[in-house]
């Protein structure tokens, strides 16, 4: 049976949810040039891939967080994944807004959450880790016992890994940057020599010396 990280990597590449373009880098909102474009929302409109992703998330939660009582999605990308995975597992789910509502009960956490409940956060993508740590902090402040995070894809950037460790947040991703880069080369989406450039970007996104690396 194919390794799940490689299966998910192939799926994400096939539907261009993760798309490598080392010769024509994308520009992030921060201004950083990136050889990769990520939009895991595309998994929701690809039923076969969606099935692979949600079942893999459910299996990861069963294995890594067997005591989970509630799933909480990140807003907005993690909401659908938390809902579908929660359905598979028969667990309640909710989500955490980026800020409190300015009307009604002014909730930031949507869905019922009792103090002391064991929570797993569902995220689609982790880069520097800042947004998911904010979600974890909101849940902890509400009295939740956050067991950790499950995500579809992680860059494995040093800054993100250090932030997660400092916040004492465990993350388990279905696949990662290194695996997808290797699969992309194996499947001829990119040239084998591009892997070195991609890893250089991953290791130091602010250093653009990788851009002309193989010309």
Q: How would you portray this structure in words?
A:
Strand 5, helix 3 (about 80-90) and strand 6 form a beta-alpha-beta unit. The protein has a six-stranded mixed β-sheet with strand order 7-6-5-8-9-10, sandwiched between helices. Helix 1 (about 5-15) crosses helix 6 (about 175-185) and helix 2 (about 45-65) packs across helix 3. It has helices spanning about 5-15, 45-65, 80-90, 130-140, 160-165, 175-185, 195-205, and strands at about 20, 25, 35, 35-40, 70-75, 95, 110, 120-125, 145-155, 170-175. With about 220 residues, the protein is an alpha/beta fold. The protein has seven helices and ten strands. It is about 40% helix and about 20% strand.
Structural class computed from helices and strand pairing: alpha/beta
Number of helices: 7
Number of strands: 10
Major beta-sheet overview: 6 strands, mixed
Strand order of the largest sheet: 7-6-5-8-9-10
Tell me the distance between the termini: 38 Å
Q: pLDDT under 50 segments (min length 5)?
A: none
Estimated helix fraction: 25-40%
The dominant shape is: globular
Series of H and E elements: HEEEEHEHEEEHEHEHH
- Mean residue pLDDT: 92
Strand proportion, as a percent range, falls in: 15-25%
> Rg from C-alpha positions?
18 Å
């Amino acid at each position: 049976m194919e390794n799940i990280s490689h299966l998910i990597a192939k799926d994400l590449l096939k539907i261009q949810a993760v798309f490598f373009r080392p010769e024509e880098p994308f520009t992030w909102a921060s201004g950083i040039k990136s050889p990769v474009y990520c939009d895991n929302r595309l998994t929701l409109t690809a039923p076969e891939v969606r099935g692979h992703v949600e079942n893999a998330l459910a299996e990861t939660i069963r294995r890594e967080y067997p005591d989970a009582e509630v799933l909480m999605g990140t807003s907005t990308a993690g909401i659908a994944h938390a809902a579908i995975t929660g359905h598979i597992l028969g667990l309640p789910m909710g989500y955490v807004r980026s800020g409190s509502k300015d009307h009604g009960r002014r909730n930031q956490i949507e869905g019922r959450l009792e103090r002391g409940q064991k929570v797993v956060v569902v995220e689609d993508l982790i880069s520097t880790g800042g947004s998911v740590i904010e979600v974890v902090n909101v849940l902890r402040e509400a009295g939740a016992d956050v067991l950790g995070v499950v995500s579809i894809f992680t860059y494995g950037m040093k800054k993100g890994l250090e932030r997660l460790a400092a916040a004492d947040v465990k993350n388990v991703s279905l696949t990662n940057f290194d695996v997808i880069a290797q699969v992309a080369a194996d499947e001829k989406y990119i040239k084998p020599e591009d892997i070195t450039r991609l890893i250089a970007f991953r290791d130091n996104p602010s250093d653009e010396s990788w851009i002309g690396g193989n010309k």
